[in-house]
Write a structure and sequence with these properties.
The structure holds two protein chains of two kinds.
Chain A lengths: L23 H16 L2 E2 L6 E2 L1 H15 L10 H19 L5 H11 L6 H34 L6 H31 L1 H28 L10 H6 L1 H6 L8 H28 L2 H4 L12 H9 L11 H16 L1 H4 L3 H16 L4 H23 L4 H9 L4 H31 L2 H25 L14 H64 L1
Antiparallel strand pairs in A: 1-2
Chain B lengths: L3 E10 L2 E11 L4 E5 L6 H9 L6 E6 L2 E2 L4 H5 L2 E4 L11 H11 L4 H14 L15 H13 L5 E5 L7 H16 L3 E5 L3 H7 L2 E6 L2 E6 L1 H8 L4 H11 L1
Parallel strand pairs in B: 3-8, 3-9, 6-7, 7-8
Antiparallel strand pairs in B: 1-2, 1-4, 4-5, 9-10
Helix pairs in contact in B: 3-4, 3-5
The chains are: A mainly alpha, B alpha/beta.
């Protein structure tokens, strides 16, 4: 029978792989498909954020690794130093392996599961990817520390590659088990919660490590508390770290045997699970579906717009839009994690400020956050992975001034409120109540001014831009502008201290001027937004 | 031997029963329509045929191969166009299709020839080397079609395959389905576009709440459901859902 001309020549033989065997050609194709999707520039289907994941991993891990070399510049014993490097590297690599979002997982399943791929090939692909991820995370992180240790702490340079290989092997064994833990977590708690928990933990651990490294390098005693030596020595990560440098006595050899057994156990456990539960179990994990509702803050803002007295502050349309922006932001991963690092730093500064009675630094840093987090918050509010969200805003019967106020309220309540409250706590402890009240009001005015000015400079419909991770330059610029906020705080406090009532009056005048500027800029932003809408 | 044989298949997701004893036979060389209101269980059936999920009970054979006992044999014979239009979008269409061909075990020369053929057919050769993130929904849907056709499947399982396609491509795809059927391939086609289903399908089944209500040609189905048109039948089912 001749084939219809639309169809190509029929296949000679049909390929069916043998179950239980790894097909190398399929494995190579699987890896190229999945690594291309995971590591290349583009939008991540799990988070909706666009960026270059490979560069982000290499850059952030190298940066963190360089910060962690701080310990090598103090008189830390080599063993302790290696134990800390290995321990922190293993924690980071585990936390970097998180659950896929349900949507991304289902899409991946729809592509791969209908293909005739043997379970063994799937497992080999998962394991290869985990091995590569382990290496990508731990090598740039640990290499600077090991090199620093060879210069400062007498580590033999010949041991550096050996230690790196050992660390990669340990990290690989750990993530094999961790994948199963994450999978169980997804089944019981849902992918969304697991992703949130691991991502928050990653940020927390990174801040802790950076803090620890910086304080060690500068010789400050204000670093986070270190683990007691006894606890550190009992950790398997320490046994792995000292695998090549520990003595050769019976106890040391026992620790070596134990860590090898643990790693072998991790690999065996993974393979056993895959064999017993079938390879599809790795892919078929389903999350529990829960009912969702708008976050409390969003509901409060909407309710505020309905209260007669408060309508002046927040008109109902602005309240409703601010609530919608906050709700969407909470549900979109790309925006949910933004500002989190600053918030954690704000909490750390507040704790520092409360512990160190006369410390000017923490309160000044908190003052600087009003600018940087205001800018970061605005960039989040401008973005959404959902193209329809901006359309809904643009086509809603809203006046431009309501748009501006909605954006200001959304940014202030979600991003600025916590650092501002912490700043208030420290200000009321440090200064007379009237000055503290002025400083808090001034900080709020600064945050509103920053948002309105940025909107006036570059007007855009809220939720109208695709989520993009802020570039390094933009982040540095935000922090640099924040320094102006810190300087303003120091200036205001000094004026009030030196000139008494006159100084305080000057501060009050400054606050009023900032408020006036904020309202003026709000009008400019509304005018520019209205032109943007008209053009659309 | 039927191209698709589904025998008393049930599928439960927790307490929800998506399929409640579906039994169906599709002949070789048929374009078979599968219609029903939202939530009827169509996509669940298609995912079982494509080997994405396993039925809770019941048996499924595709091209004479037991999907549950010999899943790899069955998958080698099935092409699947998912409703979601899922692709690894950071890759180019050319990379994606080439790697998909390798996953199906095609020889390199075969991969090159077949990818080139389908790129020409779906008029995507000019943009084949761009990352697919920049392609429109319709162009991505064409890539899904190509990926499903690369290994010359005996059974093509289509879930809303016309999503986003322009008029010209829809016309080509209709011709393609007819050509595949004429070549002895079987097309299992699920869609809400009942006009097109009625036009291209030799027979169809109507699914409602996980059960088959009617199977046959369009007049036979209308007679079973006592309706004047497919639209009327589905509207009635939809309002009772």
């Amino acid at each position: 029978m001749t084939r219809p001309p639309l169809l190509p020549e029929p296949l000679g033989t049909r390929f069916v792989p043998a179950e239980g065997r790894v097909d190398r050609r399929q494995l190579a194709a699987l890896l190229r498909l999945q690594l291309g999707q995971a590591m290349r520039r583009g939008t991540d289907p799990s988070s909706g954020a666009s960026g270059h994941p490979l560069r982000q991993i290499l850059f952030s891990m190298t940066f963190l690794g360089l910060l962690s070399t701080g310990g090598a510049f103090r008189d830390v014993p080599l063993d302790t130093y290696l134990a800390r490097v290995f321990g922190s590297a293993l924690v980071i690599v585990a936390l970097m392996v998180t659950a896929e979002s349900d949507d991304a997982r289902i899409r991946r399943m729809e592509i791969l599961l209908p293909k005739p791929i043997a379970g063994a090939t799937h497992v080999a692909s998962v394991a290869s990817q985990l091995l590569l991820l382990s290496a990508l995370v731990v090598i740039p992180y640990a290499l600077p520390s090991l090199v620093a240790a060879s210069f400062r702490l007498g580590l033999s340079p010949a041991l550096v590659p050996l230690l790196l290989a050992t660390l990669v092997a340990g990290a690989f064994a750990l993530v094999l088990v961790w994948v199963l833990v994450v999978r169980a977590g997804v089944q019981h708690l849902g992918a969304d919660r697991i992703r949130m928990a691991t991502q928050v933990s990653v940020v927390g651990v990174m801040i802790l490590l950076a803090w620890s490294g910086l304080s060690a390098a500068s010789g400050e005693a204000l670093g986070p508390p270190a683990l007691p030596g006894r606890v550190l020595r009992a950790l398997p990560s320490t046994w792995l770290a000292l695998f090549w440098t520990d003595g050769w006595d019976a106890a040391a050899n026992l620790r070596r045997a134990a860590v090898v057994a643990l790693m072998a156990g991790a690999v065996a456990g993974f393979l056993l699970f895959v064999r017993r539960a079938s390879v599809d179990a790795l892919f078929e994990t389903t999350s529990r579906v829960r009912r969702t509702r708008a976050p409390l803050l969003a509901r409060l803002l909407v309710a505020m717009g309905r209260v007669p007295g408060l309508r002046l502050l927040l008109p109902p349309p602005a309240g409703a839009l601010a609530g919608a922006i906050l709700t969407l932001g909470r549900r979109e991963e790309a925006s949910r994690l933004r500002g989190f690092a600053t918030t954690l730093l704000a909490v750390a500064m507040a704790v520092w400020g409360l512990l160190a009675d006369d410390g000017l630094m923490p309160i000044a840093v908190l003052a600087s956050f009003m600018v940087s987090i205001g800018l970061e918050g605005l960039s989040v509010v401008r973005q959404s992975a959902d193209a329809g969200a901006a359309w809904a805003v643009a086509k809603a019967p809203l006046r431009a001034r309501h748009l501006v106020r909605a954006v200001q309220w959304a940014v202030v309540t979600r991003f600025v409120l916590l650092p501002l409250s912490l700043f208030g706590v420290l200000a009321f402890r440090r200064h007379p109540w009237y000055l503290a009240a002025l400083l808090v009001a001034g900080s709020l005015a600064v945050a509103r001014l920053v948002v309105a000015s940025a909107l006036a400079l570059r007007p855009s419909i809220p939720l109208g831009e695709p989520p993009v991770v802020a570039g390094f330059v933009a982040q540095i610029l935000g922090w640099a502008l924040g320094i102006a906020g810190a300087v303003a705080y120091v200036l205001a406090a000094t004026l009030s201290d030196l000139l008494g009532v006159i100084g305080t009056a000057l501060v009050a005048a400054g606050v009023l001027a900032t408020l006036a500027a904020s309202f003026a800029m709000q009008m400019v932003a509304a005018h520019r937004l209205a032109r943007l809408e008209a053009a659309a | 031997m039927p191209a698709i044989a589904i025998e008393d298949v049930r599928k439960a997701f927790g307490a929800t029963e998506a399929l409640r004893g579906v039994t169906l036979e599709v002949r070789r060389g048929e374009v078979f329509g599968y219609v029903g209101p939202n939530g009827a269980g169509k996509t669940t059936t298609l995912k079982i045929l494509a080997g994405l999920i396993r039925p809770t009970t019941g048996g499924v054979r595709v091209a004479g191969v037991d999907v549950l006992a010999q899943p790899l044999e069955a998958k080698a014979r099935v092409g699947y166009v998912p409703e979601s239009g899922a692709l690894f979008e950071k890759l180019s269409a050319l990379e994606y299709l080439t790697l998909t061909g390798r996953l199906h075990g095609l020889a390199e020369a075969e991969v090159t020839a077949r990818v080139a053929h389908w790129l020409r057919f779906f008029d995507l050769a000019a943009r084949a080397e761009e990352p697919m993130t920049g392609l429109s929904k319709g162009l991505k849907q064409r890539v899904c079609w190509m990926a499903a056709l690369l290994h010359d499947p005996e059974v093509l399982v289509l879930d809303e395959p016309l999503n986003g396609l322009d008029v010209e491509t829809v016309a080509r795809v209709k011709d393609l389905m007819a050509a595949l059927a004429a070549d002895g391939r079987t097309v299992f086609y699920s869609s809400h576009l009942i006009d097109i289903v009625a036009l291209v399908c030799t027979r169809l089944a109507v699914l409602h709440r996980g059960r088959i209500l009617a199977v046959g040609t369009v007049p036979e189905v209308l007679a079973t459901l006592e309706a004047g048109s497919l639209e009327e039948a589905l509207l009635r089912l939809g309002s009772s859902a």
